[in-house]
Sequence to fold (136 residues):
Amino acid sequence: MSSHSRIVHSDIQNIGLDPYEILKNKSQRLSWNRLSDAEIYLDKKAVIEWFECLRNYSELTVKAIVVDGILDNEFHNITFILRLVQEREFNTMTSKDTYQMLYEFVCKTPQGIRDWIDEKDYMMSRDVLALLSRNR
Fold:
């Protein structure tokens, strides 16, 4: 998929990242009718608790993990993961601990968000991170 055909989830250079708004907008785009209203199908409490795991990371890192890694299925790509774990925010963690944190975050993805992702893609992302963190 070329970078020009990808959906732009947010422009975080001039505005703050609002993760819930990203998820709400994605939910609305996925539906051809009003039945998949994010207010109905997304458990706000679960989404907030899920994002709370990333509260100590920069907006760029959160975007990379949530939007690129999970929603755009980049966790299939070992190169993406290796570039991500080399971010300065992970310098104090061992690579195994970083892979473990990413694995746990992916495993905790709320069901409402998992419904947007092809199950095979989700499982592959989880399995790649499980192998790297030795949870398999």
Remarks:
- The two ends are 30 Å apart (CA to CA).
- The CA atoms of residues 100 and 135 lie 8 Å apart.
